[in-house]
Amino acid sequence: MDSVSARGDPSLPHVVVVGGGFGGVSAARALGRAPVRVTLIDRSNHHLFQPLLYQVATASLSPGDIAVPLRQFVGDQNNVTVALAEVTGADLERRAVSFTTADGRAQTLAYDALVVATGVEQSYFGHDEFARWAPGLKSLLDAVAIRARLLRALEIAETEPDPAKHRDILTFVLVGAGPTGCEMAGAVAEMLQGPFRTEFRRVDLRSARIVLVEGAARILPSFSESLARRAHARLVAKGVEIRTGVRVDQVDGLGATVAGQRIPSRLVLWTAGVTPTAGRLLGVETAPGGRVRVQPDLTLPARPEVFVIGDTAHVERDGRPLPGVAQVALQQGRYAARVIARRLANATPPPPFRYFDKGNMAVIGRGFAIFESGRLQLSGFPAWLAWATIHLAFLPAAGNRFAVFTRWAWSYATGQQPSRLIIEPRGTPPA
Amino acid sequence: MDSVSARGDPSLPHVVVVGGGFGGVSAARALGRAPVRVTLIDRSNHHLFQPLLYQVATASLSPGDIAVPLRQFVGDQNNVTVALAEVTGADLERRAVSFTTADGRAQTLAYDALVVATGVEQSYFGHDEFARWAPGLKSLLDAVAIRARLLRALEIAETEPDPAKHRDILTFVLVGAGPTGCEMAGAVAEMLQGPFRTEFRRVDLRSARIVLVEGAARILPSFSESLARRAHARLVAKGVEIRTGVRVDQVDGLGATVAGQRIPSRLVLWTAGVTPTAGRLLGVETAPGGRVRVQPDLTLPARPEVFVIGDTAHVERDGRPLPGVAQVALQQGRYAARVIARRLANATPPPPFRYFDKGNMAVIGRGFAIFESGRLQLSGFPAWLAWATIHLAFLPAAGNRFAVFTRWAWSYATGQQPSRLIIEPRGTPPA
Questions:
Q1: Structural domain containing residue B300
Q2: Which residue, among B4, B87, B99, B103, would best test binding to A if mutated, counting the most A CBs under 10 Å from its CB?
Q3: Orientation angle between helical segments B22-30 and B326-344, nearest 10 degrees
Q4: Does residue A140 lie in a domain region?
Q5: Residues B268 and B294 both lie in one domain
Q6: ipTM
Q7: Which of A80, A154, A219, A329 supports an S-S bond with A74, CB 3.0-4.6 Å?
Q8: Cβ(A23)–Cβ(A116) under 8 Å?
């Protein structure tokens, strides 16, 4: 029985969208006027603007600033029902997804079309035992936990009478120098250089270390070499130690071992790799890297009613897979909705999906970013201004734009970290 | 060894303030110009504006709106050092407090004067086993957990196909009809009557029940009977079921038993009683009710250097103990600081502490409050306006006032609950 059934005319075709990230939400929104019932399933109750998640982890923004409840997001769209549930599998033959509700009940839901936008999980390259000690940064829960551990490390140092121990307590290791790792490194460096310097009376925060570790030969491999070099210089100027071309051998509660060398640390953060999720969910073939191979119209081979979009879909352009960024997911969500609507209207299907690359950006602290789009390359303050404008514009709701703008203006003016509450249970073990 | 030693001239007298609530913070602030070193110890990193905590629990405000990091709060005050630690005891003979740091190290700290402002904990009247199922509302962590459970109950009902089960899933039991219980009941009722009605497509939120349970003969025993009667009528008009003069026999994971009658419920909230904490901490005599008996100058008998203030101190006025409200703690904190400063200046000690009662208020949903001060009694919108103005004015920092005002204006205009994220681990057991 379809216990989570969409509202509206039950004779309308039923589109099930799995995942409330950029891809899923853009598909659901784009189906607003189509003659379909839509059910949007996510295990979180909110859509998260992931590009700014590192700012929650570094106490610059509050969780509510960068998230919007899914129900509110689609509240004005009468043909969408939201279900808080974790999808556990799909029966492609019988056209049904199975899921578990928030109170643990197993249910199934039949679909006429399925849009899978389940994104990626953190990957530890076979070392899942690192997860306990080196959290990733994928959800608000992750961000709040990392923020608590960062802030608690400073508090612990403040109560440690032996200054010789401060350096180890205040060593932060970031594994992976993609945009998230670099953005975190820049933001942590700035946090330690702002008003914290005087608010912490006893510990000298200049004894803190930020170590950014990357397996590739250079940081930001998805950017051009010249831009990456500028970001590298900026990070070094902020005091970040960068180690490229090295592997992490070990992570435990007392630190990390990198290229044979031990780094004592209370906080190792992992942003090094991801595992796409849709292959396992659907039980279908994946490309190297784990993404699901799809047709030019983003459907599974011989399953024209099943779409896979976003980070978890393998789509090539000029022989290279598309990057796992928000723009790809947003465009693919809209594309899948268009294919569904055209089919229902018996219209010609749209031409194969083509990604329109609006560019690639990363930010290193206040006032410095790198931006590249085709041959255009920008760095420094102009790129940061573009970054700030674009991110404000793409935030999901007016309330988010207002909150983030206010918070940024405030912290730009005062240098303060506006969102530095520790609201975790005391003595929470790293989990 | 004093490992958490205050900064500044070590020859200055050292005042240790335990607790960063209203009492402790007001004492620390009032010592800003005194020739002393101050160490403010709290197990949280923030000062919390408790009177609005119920609005975080009901998704109206975000945690950051009503809290300010202690370091930031006293950041401009050079003679104060903050320590994140849990005070475990005091040796009054040797004038030292012992505490545990955030990483579990035991330390001690010597004082010349001690101000104990440790407040109260939830009390279950000997039924500590209820705590697991019926959380109290004392900290941001509590509020965020209650918010998650409230919102998750709605989500669970939405995925439950059998409407007959919705009523039990959506039954909320509030134990204790003091201001917090009544404010929660009113706020939950409004939450269920706003835009949620349409955002939840399948479940009929009119099937929800809010049961407010009170052991005394009427609600709001600290208010006059006529005002309590008006608040009672307002709650009933909002659909709240009120049971007075009854006892809670049992609370477990499936509901509560009240006066022999079983109420199935997924969320029982406990605001019925409190236990003062300072008696146990100091190992001194307490009055009935558990508060520490103090002299007219708020010091312990024969320990003129030890002050006990706020909810945890027993001070009488006209033969009745002062209520456990913010105003008492604020005034006592300032008073203790004055006594300390006068002693150091060898000036005449101030006259015995006298509480200046500015009045007592409680709010039942948007636009309705009750307020009483001496013979003045107000209810309805004028009282609500007074309530809103006073609470905005007393928020700790300008950033909080701005955030709360904006959030209230927004939700007054749209009816939306602005802060409804669930950022707890999935399947978190009630703890």
A1: 14-122+274-344
A2: B103
A3: 30
A4: yes
A5: no
A6: 0.92
A7: A80
A8: no
